Amino acid sequence: MRAAVSYYGPMEKEPHISVIVPVYNEEKNIPLLFSRLASVMNALPVSYEIIAVDDGSGDASFDALMRVASKDSHVNVIRFKRNFGQTAALAAGIDHARGDTIVTIDSDLENDPADIPRLLEKIDEGYEVVSGWRQGRWAGALFTRRLPSIVANMIISAVTGVSLHDYGCTLKAYRSDVIKGVKLYGEMHRFIPAYAAWQGGRVAEIPVTHSPRKHGKSNYGFGRVFRVLLDLVVVVFMHRYMNRPMHFFGMWGLASLSFGFLVGCIAITLRIFVGLHLIDTPLPVLTALLIIVGIQLVLFGVIGEMIMRTYYESQNRRPYTIKESTIEH
């Protein structure tokens, strides 16, 4: 992912809060959004920065962002060479964020910046992730939007074990040490609360204001729901088996081998005691197929274990995270 980064004005050494705003074709919303953001953030007794990521907009969004950045030294702008998607925009903002706390917010004015202080209050209570729960979002759209959203959030909550009403809400606050190490692809930014919980972090959800879009067109649709669910399969698989691939492939490999030997025993028994000509049955082929597949799956597990160990050793990564320690080095 290649992007051009521009900074305007003097930059504070260590901002406490980084606000990340992914932008895509929102030129008409930018002035009001950043005016509201500045009003809210300036009222807080902490230093901050705002990172706007132009995700290859086809309108004049970048020009609008540059006008804002030229007047406000807190605002930094990243511009993509083309449209990479919201997850990539958030990832770029997170990579460049310097704050101890990271806040993400949509640029379409559907999220209210006035809710940010409430998110930060929850972070100060000791939570690693605080997610917004949009109120009154699907009024009048029960079957076309509200019901699919409810079902999708129920599925995600059940599969991940982290219960949230609104995984899709961009308005969230994170401790930077929780989010910095997460690699985001596809629609996986939605699952950061689950990542945090799996690492032992505390996750909270609070109701936030939802406003109807004033300008531009929403990109929400059924296609996105299906993409999110497909990414969910990948996320859960990686969480459960990335550190132990043999547990997955080995389990299915042993099951295939066991069924292969069982079918083989049945075939031999039928040949000896019944006199059945095995060439007239699919049993020999099925036996061989099950045994070969079982061996292959076990070998996949072995290869996966070798790749996983090589990855951790080459990256000097550890299979654990530490919250606090009294050990001095």
From TrEMBL:
Instruction: Provide the organism lineage as a comma list.
Output: Bacteria, Candidatus Kaiseribacteriota
Where in this chain does the record put each Glycosyltransferase 2-like domain?
18-180
Membrane-crossing ranges are: 249-273, 285-308
Question: Keywords on this record?
Answer: Cell membrane, Glycosyltransferase, Lipopolysaccharide biosynthesis, Membrane, Transferase, Transmembrane, Transmembrane helix
**GO BP annotations, alphabetical order:** lipopolysaccharide biosynthetic process
Stored CDD domains:
DPM1_like_bac
> Mind telling me what this protein is named?
Glycosyl transferase family 2
Signal peptide limits: none
Q: Which GO terms describe its cellular component?
A: plasma membrane
Checking InterPro entries in the record gives: Glyco_trans_2-like (IPR001173), Glycosyltransferase_2 (IPR050256), Nucleotide-diphossugar_trans (IPR029044)
Provide the GO MF annotations for this entry. Answer: glycosyltransferase activity
Alphabetized Pfam families for the sequence: Glycos_transf_2 (PF00535)
